[in-house]
Specification:
Distance between the termini of chain A: 31 Å
Largest interface: A-B, 36 and 36 residues
Strand content of chain A: 25-35%
CATH topology of the largest domain in chain A: Carbamate kinase
Helix content of chain A: 25-40%
CATH architecture of the largest domain in chain A: 3-Layer(aba) Sandwich
Strand order of the largest sheet of chain A: 3-6-2-1-9-11-12-10
Oligomer: homodimer
Number of helices of chain A: 11
Structural class of chain A: alpha/beta
Largest sheet of chain A: 8 strands, mixed
Order of helices and strands of chain A: EHEHHEEEHEEEHEEHHEEEHEEHEHEEH
Number of strands of chain A: 18
CATH class of the largest domain in chain A: Alpha Beta
Chain lengths: ~400, ~400
């Protein structure tokens, strides 16, 4: 008899029929004597509808009211999910984020969880009820409604699992699990049985769309093992948990690809440490994050700087850097075009020399070169030509033997 | 500088454009230096959509979850209304029923307000903000979401007005005010400038669709004057307030018609007081209310009972009475067909003898007869043939000189 938190995303509860399907899955676990907390998102599409209405009324809707508006989505789903459970004989009760005691700061539309009281979840579980909790939302200490921003429902699930010390947290989504590479690019990509928090985190920040980094970070911090699995079939998914590195034998776990990167070039910059620092200070203060930086010496004692940034942040970065350059008295900023970021991730990388060599050999075999490279203990990323990205991913996947791994 | 509560119903906030229109009306009052609390309903149609989804999942959705679901409607409207106010430069903040401190009992889907703390409404007003409150909803002392049932948003407005001691409560709706008769039936029906709580109450319970009795009762109990007016034009509406009867000169204020009545006949009942009592006890316990009762002696020392009930309650009444008759050992219950209930209402009635006589003369002039009659201090109701109801209303309206009243 386990204590399980399950999370179902917007697609999984998108229609009345799918909500019924979720209820059936919950019943299956409940019938085996498990105690269940079910975290649900808003029906897919609802958030867009609400945002469209808000935008029709205001160019820049106030974030506090945006949260009052958006919180509506999950509140609808919790009630409907409980009704679906009742209809098949499963006792259940709903809880909004506020009722579940998910206390956040007051940064509306992107609030951070500061505390989880859990409300009366454990009491209700003890009564034999399934507790259905609204994901994505919380409330401040003064009772203002807040939302958690992107990936918020996953975060709710993991945070609730941590607070009630659940045995397992299952993230039901529209993919089967975490793959060695995107199966749409690499046909023989394999679903991993398990993966470490660190690897999952690097994959999340490297373009894998499965989960947002913040949820994985939270799970790692509170050591909440979770499973990513499909709500549309019964296959086991991928277990994300703490893994002892010495037990690992494979060098890398997977290949990730992020297409939404732009290469930014800053030329004719004064070649002084304070100039480079000023640029990255200002970018950081604007909440933008850059990746894969290189610095070259240019002509006449000037320096050139190249780095990558997500494409949707480029316009703001250009503006911020433009202002910095004006203060510095010299330099030009421009986009050097879109790039794709290919990353290999694996906790075994540290103990396996030659990983970088194998990577570049694989890239060379398909005629791909890279100027921008960045490495961490368990990741190497390279910026490559987007037109050759799929081919590169396939070559790297094969070179590291990911097709065949046990 | 007045403290005003305004309430806008579902039709008035039915679309983004209409919400913008509401915001403009609010701004008009706010610009004149008034302090405003705005109570809004769910967009018309939303409640039906939500109920349809609930019914698709469960034949009998639990009422607690129904409230969690339905509360979504007004929560959306408060956020959108605040956004519309911001867009035209009016500072505003939203409050759900729970946030506004509308504390109810736990009778889900038909909760009664037990207390209003008002939350921080007065503080926010003091900051110069318009406070937009979700109508129709509240919360129990333990934080469970509740809804107030039919007419709930009007009730919220009047209750908030009472709790903050507002100078005026304006109920914006899709009619211009309270008329001497339904203008669709009586072409020269007049809009009344003012009407007493008592008259409004009798009209509400006599088929006038303008407001539910419970809101009027609440207003009367706490002496909250309110104005019923249209959200689609700027004409003054009808003021409902305490009116000193001695100042009244007209015998009656208006004519109301309720078509949704069924006449119920119980025959062969033991003619004993306890038998009659048993029937009305059981009906009352089932939450059904009857009207216009008459008792006749039948054959063999048996009694016959005839009364009217709203048509949608007939099936339940038939069942309840059937059970009572079984206990009593004799009697049959059946519908004697639909009837229309025509009522004349007026606080001046007491001091004007001959009102009943004039009513029956007017009815006779169009060949209408009535078997069932009921009277109160300020109302006379008669059950008449539905086919002749419109004609009867017109005749009565003219007979009492309502067309011409100042």
């Amino acid at each position: 008899m386990a204590l399980i938190v399950q999370k179902y995303g917007g697609t999984s509860v998108g229609t009345v029929d799918r909500i019924r399907n979720v209820a059936a899955k919950v019943k299956e676990q409940w019938s085996q004597g498990n105690r269940l907390v079910v975290v649900v998102s808003a029906r897919s599409g609802v958030t867009n509808e609400l945002v469209a209405r808000a935008k029709a009324l205001s160019n820049l809707p106030e974030e506090r009211e945006m949260d009052v508006l958006l919180a509506v989505g999950e509140q609808e789903t919790i009630a409907l999910t409980v009704m679906a459970l009742h209809a098949i004989g499963v006792p259940a009760v709903s809880r909004t984020g506020a009722q579940a005691g998910i206390i956040t700061d007051d940064k509306h539309t992107r609030a951070r969880i500061v505390r989880i009281t859990g409300g009366d979840i454990l009491e209700r579980l003890d009564e034999g009820k399934v507790v259905v909790v609204a994901g994505f939302q919380g409330a401040t200490d003064t009772g203002e409604l807040t939302t958690l921003g992107r990936g918020g429902s996953d975060l709710t699930a993991i945070a609730v699992a941590a607070s009630i010390k659940a045995d397992m947290c299952q993230i039901y989504t529209d993919v089967d699990g975490v793959y060695t590479a995107d199966p749409r690019i690499v046909l023989n990509a394999r679903k991993m049985e398990e993966i470490s928090y660190e690897e999952m985190l690097e994959l999340a920040s490297s373009g894998s769309k499965v989960m947002q980094s913040r949820s994985v970070e939270f799970a790692q911090k509170y050591n909440v093992p979770f499973e990513v699995r499909s709500s549309f079939n019964d296959k086991p998914g991928t277990l994300v948990k703490a893994i002892d590195k010495t037990l690992e034998d494979a060098a890398i776990a997977g290949v990730a690809l992020d297409r939404s990167q732009t290469r930014v070039t800053v030329t004719d910059l004064p070649d002084r440490p304070d100039a480079i620092a000023a640029i990255f200070d200002d970018i950081g203060e604007a909440g933008l994050s850059v990746d894969m930086i290189i610095k070259n010496l240019g002509k006449d004692g000037k320096a050139n700087l190249t780095f990558s940034i997500t494409t949707d942040q480029f316009a703001r970065a250009e503006k911020v850097i433009g202002a910095t350059l004006k203060k510095l008295g010299s330099g030009t900023v421009r986009s050097a075009g879109e790039v794709a970021k290919l990353s290999i991730v694996g906790v075994g990388m540290i103990s396996h020399p030659g990983v970088a060599g194998l990577l570049f050999k694989a890239l060379a075999s398909v005629g791909v070169n890279s100027e921008l490279i960045t490495t961490s203990e368990i990741k190497i990323s390279v910026a490559i030509d987007p037109a050759k990205a799929d081919e590169a991913v396939r070559a790297v996947h094969t070179s590291f033997g990911l097709d065949k791994k046990a």
